[in-house]
Amino acid sequence: MQSANRPTDRTVQLMATCLCDAFFDDVARATVEVLEHVGCEVEFPENQTCCGQPAFNCGDWSASREVMRHTARVFDGSKPVIVPSGSCAAMLFHGAPLEFEKEKDLPTIQKLANRTWELADFLVNGLGIEKWSGRFPARIAFHRACHTRGTGSAEAALKLLESIEGLEVVPFGEAEQCCGFGGTFSVSFPHVSSSMGCLKLEHLTEMNPDFIVSGDMSCLMHLSGLAERGEKPVKTLHFAQILQTALHRHG
Amino acid sequence: MSTAREQIFSSVRAALTPLPERTPRPVFSKDVAEPKWLAAETDSLALFQKRAEATGTKCFTDMEACASWLRAQAVRVVYIPPPLTRLVALCSEFCEVTSEYSRARVNEIDAAFTPSAGAIAESGSIILSDGSTPDRLAALAPWHHIALVSRAEIHRTIADALAAMPADPNLIWVTGPSKTADVEGILIQGVHGPGAQACLIL
Amino acid sequence: MAEQKVELFARRLDHGIQKAVHSNSAAGTEKRYNVLGTDYSAPDDLRRLAGQIRQHSIEYLDTYLEQAEQSLKRQGAHVHFAVTAEDACRAVSDILKKAGAKKVVKSKSMISEEIYLNDHLGTMGIESVETDLGEYIIQIDGDHPSHIVKPIIHKNRRDIAKSFEREGLGDYNDDPETITRRARVFMRDKYLQADAGITGANFVSAESGRLVLVTNEGNSRFCLAAPKIHIALVGIEKVIPSDADLAVLLNLLGRSATGQQLTVYTEFINGPARTDRPSGPQEMHVIFVDNQRSQILASDCREILRCIRCGACLNVCPVYRQASGHAYRSVYPGPLGAVLSPLLAGKKFKELADLPKASSLCGACNEVCPVDIPIPDLLLRLRNRGHQEHAPSPGTPPMGAFAKLASSPLIWRFAMKSNKVMNLVPLEKLPLPYLQPWLKTRTLPAWRGGEFRSWMKSRHKK
């Protein structure tokens, strides 16, 4: 669980995530525009790299701690750290304190953990935004990324999405099930991972939504990659992209 | 034997001693696990009947109805412990009645009445004890089992029943007929114990 | 490239079995969800309370185990202790030998699976019959349970009908009701002839000494109705402070396991038969089994000892649904097993150190756990232990180079930009072994490394 008193200043540090750095600059841009729309000044610490989760999940905690120590140095200070990914955010506020539980510098890591927000969580539960302006006429299926379990992120994202004019969120079966990505799990268990993903796609597309939406590009990359290989491509969007697009359609 | 005991206790203590602090015993109210619908149920007897029926236990409040159910079930030998003379008379009309539960007749006796040690309204469970049931088999082996439940002995909640457990080598809460879903998840009743579970509320 | 064992098993798994495991598990998850939703406005608070009760119980095990021992003795039960699985088996056969017992009926008990009791009794010339329908079918097939609550989730009615025919329980008939009736008749004689009944225990209340057993079939009750001796095998972690704690634990156990408020039979055993209560077994033996549990208690994975064996984590686990229980090569499958089995293996930890990797760390297991065990955290700790002990882990990329790269921002930025070359060559041709399993079933989006950084910079210039 996250700390109760996380900072809510409007000058924020953005952790764009390595996936956005490498593939999804559009999602990172959307995140910046969304944050600016609600009056935030967004700082982007140039030396940021990755949250270290791949090594953490592989069991190589000493390698992961090396990356996390770098990250903690890059994101020094007291401003909120905003992450457009439930998974990377959870790495900062949950995984990092776990891998540092026996380390002397745990307090430094805990300090960073206590400043970390997943984007939707920050908008709704941090800044108190309940409604999003603009229009986005579409039917979407919203995949609750697994690393937001036990946090307010999925509800927060849904609250904003459902407040957008013209947008309809459609239900689907076995909603609690994972998409099968799981980081390095996707390459060390390719059959299980892909089977999970195909099943997830079946459920997500039950009601023929226009878009599959999530707060984690890792899930969406896996799902759209599977769908494309299976020659049944789907359109995916990060929720920040919907928020951003809705704003443009507004005015 | 004592060495194994000492070995286990010493490893348990060795495991626990280094803990900087231990999780305290949580304090909770007795009703913490009561279902949210329970408060609206004011009549324990009615609730017991509702819950019992919902879990597959038939409820009778008069002997005639119970006897005619057994008749319709084509029961051949029924065990009725004394002194239920009225019930004996009713059942004697259509089947053999025995007042002794003999293990030699385990497979012949296809219905049995046994006194219960109460019931639980919240879950529709019947409570049996060695003190109330002369032979555990009598309440288990026959296809039809009818527990005799006294209105005054219906506990409102599971927590109430736990708090009032009598000193008895064996207590059992029976919530419906014996069942299994081992074969392809298909529910089948009467796998080892009664296929038809009932109670007669007196 | 070598393959993960769970992956290999899943890939070769019969499609029909996989489908059956998936649909049965998904149905279990849904039932649990519905009953908890109908009955509680804040089921998570209740799960956390139950978790605290169990965590407290194991962290004061020194106190409660001794108290349970005293309470049991006071009621006239014989209390035994067994350090290892072999000790536990021997304790059972010693009791049986002393009493001249030749025939035993057994109620379903995971710990008896864990110590391979039936094999041991067989070598001692003692007939031991599993009485739970599923477990009986496992026994006659020489198979192993693939789920802790639904042992034959991997079998269909045709498999079972063939086994019954082979065992002389009548001509081939795959009607589930007929199968069940035949088992009823067969078991009836076994119960009546048995010298002893062996059970496990779901809980032992330290204060009252009550042993709690839950079943739906009523077989445990039968095992304690006719035989003269009762032997209960109990893991030392099953102890709870008092009967009052059962109000929380029983309410969650049935709902989590099978979506029932309570299982059909909830039995409280409080000693052997007395002169004024002559119905039950005249001798009662309780064997407390350690078998690595005290070592687990000493480890940083002690939370797994909270487990009350409901099977909800198996049902909800997407990997279990794909791979089925036998993929876990141990008595306890699924997320629970991926934590518990390598720990129970003791010195042979490395042989099962791959199990904690067989998870996408999705956390659904923790979300449904009635005692709120942080299973993903425990899986991660075990992965770290496996890494430190150099346990083999095929398909897991080495992370040293990644860590160097991700701690060197200049090189990182250079790599981000220069990797655009990836867009120019077919990915399948790239000499990146860990990329290939990805590409077999998935495409990758175009590389746009550094684009966001440039955009961000250009805006700040304005």
Can you describe what's shown?
The complex is a heterotrimer of chains A (251), B (202) and C (462). Chain A is an alpha/beta fold. Chain A is built from 12 helices and 8 strands. Chain A has helices spanning 18-22, 25-37, 53-58, 61-74, 86-99, 106-113, 119-126, 153-162, 185-188, 190-204, 217-229, 239-250; strands at 11-14, 41-43, 81-83, 116-118, 135-143, 165-169, 211-214, 236-238. Chain A is globular. With 202 residues, chain B is of the alpha/beta class. Chain B has a single domain, classed as 3-Layer(aba) Sandwich (Rossmann fold). Chain B has helices spanning 2-16, 44-54, 63-72, 85-92, 158-163; strands spanning 57-60, 77-79, 96-98, 111-115, 119-120, 125-129, 144-149, 154-155, 170-174, 179-180, 188-189, 196-201. The longest helix of chain B is centred in the first third of the chain and has 15 residues, at 2-16. Chain C has 3 domains: 5-13 and 302-388, Fumarate Reductase Iron-sulfur Protein, Chain B, domain 2 (Orthogonal Bundle); 42-291, Rossmann fold (3-Layer(aba) Sandwich); 413-461, no CATH class. Chain C has helices spanning 5-12, 15-39, 43-59, 61-74, 85-99, 110-114, 117-123, 133-140, 157-166, 176-193, 219-223, 246-258, 293-298, 312-316, 318-323, 334-344, 364-368, 375-388, 400-406, 409-418, 436-441, 451-461, and strands at 78-82, 103-106, 127-130, 196-199, 203-205, 211-215, 229-235, 239-240, 265-269, 283-289. Strand 9 of chain B pairs antiparallel with strand 9 of chain C.
- Spatial order of the strands in the main sheet of chain C? 1-10-7-4-2-3
Query: What percent of the residues of chain A sit in helical stretches (DSSP H or I)?
Result: 40-55%
Q: How many DSSP E strands of chain C? A: 10
CATH architectural type of the largest domain in chain C: 3-Layer(aba) Sandwich
* Share in β-strands of chain C: 5-15%
Helical stretch tally of chain A: 12
CATH domain class name of the largest domain in chain C: Alpha Beta
What does the secondary structure layout of this molecule look like, with pairings?
The complex is a heterotrimer of chains A (251), B (202) and C (462).
Chain A: E1 11-14, H1 18-22, H2 25-37, E2 41-43, H3 53-58, H4 61-74, E3 81-83, H5 86-99, H6 106-113, E4 116-118, H7 119-126, E5 135-143, H8 153-162, E6 165-169, H9 185-188, H10 190-204, E7 211-214, H11 217-229, E8 236-238, H12 239-250
Parallel strand pairs in A: 1-2, 1-3, 3-4, 5-6, 5-7, 7-8
Helix pairs in contact in A: 2-12, 5-6, 7-8, 10-11
Chain B: H1 2-16, H2 44-54, E1 57-60, H3 63-72, E2 77-79, H4 85-92, E3 96-98, E4 111-115, E5 119-120, E6 125-129, E7 144-149, E8 154-155, H5 158-163, E9 170-174, E10 179-180, E11 188-189, E12 196-201
Parallel strand pairs in B: 1-12, 2-3, 2-4, 4-7, 5-8, 7-12
Antiparallel strand pairs in B: 5-6, 6-9, 10-11
Chain C: H1 5-12, H2 15-39, H3 43-59, H4 61-74, E1 78-82, H5 85-99, E2 103-106, H6 110-114, H7 117-123, E3 127-130, H8 133-140, H9 157-166, H10 176-193, E4 196-199, E5 203-205, E6 211-215, H11 219-223, E7 229-235, E8 239-240, H12 246-258, E9 265-269, E10 283-289, H13 293-298, H14 312-316, H15 318-323, H16 334-344, H17 364-368, H18 375-388, H19 400-406, H20 409-418, H21 436-441, H22 451-461
Parallel strand pairs in C: 1-10, 2-3, 2-4, 4-7, 5-8, 7-10
Antiparallel strand pairs in C: 5-6, 6-9
Helix pairs in contact in C: 2-12, 16-18
